[in-house]
Each structure stands twice: as C-alpha cells, then as structure tokens.
Design brief:
Elements (H helix, E strand, L loop, with lengths): L17 H8 L4 E5 L5 E2 L14 E5 L3 E10 L13 E8 L5 E5 L14 E8 L5 E7 L4
Antiparallel strand pairs: 1-2, 1-3, 4-5, 4-7, 5-6, 7-8
The protein binds zinc ion (ZN).
Length: about 140
C-alpha cells in the first residue's frame, strides 16, 4: 500500500521535468547535469544556472541520499489525508550530485525516529494517477 492515498494527485510532468518523470517510470532516479560544466541541478531547467549552457544529460543518482530536512504534518492539507495523520515530508539530499534535493516521504520510519542526516534509499510507489514516484526508506546499515 502506498504511503499517500490514491486521492492525492500524482505528478503532472512539464516540458522541463518530463525526462525526470520518464526515468522514474523505469524505476530510475536520475538528475539533470550540465553537459558543459557538469554541475547537477534539480528541478530540471532548460538552461544551466551556472554557465548558461543549453546542453544537459541525465545521470543516475547514487543509491543513497540523506535526510536534509523534514516536517511532521499534523493537519490534513488535503481531505484524503484526514485518516493518515501524522505523516512526514522529507527533503532528501544527494551530496554526490551537487546536493540535488527531492521533496518526498519516508515510508517506513515512525515520526519520532526521523533524523537529519539519516541515510535513505529510494523505493518506488504508484501515485493515484498511475505514475511511479520516488519515495524513501531508511537505509539498513549492517
Ligand atoms: Zn553548466
């Protein structure tokens, strides 16, 4: 069962972020990187904010990211969330990708156990519109 109910709207890709979502549909997390100066950026943009190049490529993200920030939500911002409280929102940072960050959810961690810097790995869930979306789980450290 997905972390968020199916009534929550799924992504609606734009011209700029459609490649990101297309890779997600293949269960691949990739970030846009400038082909000229090789800096990552997210969300995707047509022009590199650093060197103004229009050339870009899509590079696979590393398996592990880390919690950069999080919030525990106690008020339902959408009627479908009334029975799901509290839920978390996390910002996952990928240091190896120039700190590209994603806003998502942790699917398997009680609110009181979420920590900044916690290593996390991607899991794929199906949103209400049928699209695969990246969510995260705590990385098991053995
Ligand atoms: Zn650049």
């Amino acid at each position: 069962m997905a972390y968020l109910p199916e009534e929550i709207p799924g992504p609606q890709p734009t011209t700029e972020d459609r490649p990101f979502w297309d890779y997600c549909q293949q269960r691949e997390l990739r970030f846009q990187r400038c082909a000229a100066c090789r800096r990552f950026r997210h969300p995707p943009t047509p022009v590199c904010p650093h060197c103004r190049s229009f050339d870009s490529e899509w590079i696979a993200a590393p398996e592990t990211g880390e919690v950069f920030s999080f919030s525990i939500v106690h008020h339902p911002a959408h009627p479908a969330m009334k029975g799901k409280l509290p839920y978390n929102l996390v910002v996952v940072d990928f240091p190896a990708c120039d700190h590209a960050r994603l806003v998502s959810n942790l699917v398997d961690v009680p609110p009181e156990e979420i920590r900044i810097g916690m290593p996390v790995t991607v899991v794929w869930e199906t949103a209400g519109n049928g699209m695969l979306v990246p969510r995260f789980k705590k990385k098991e450290t053995l």
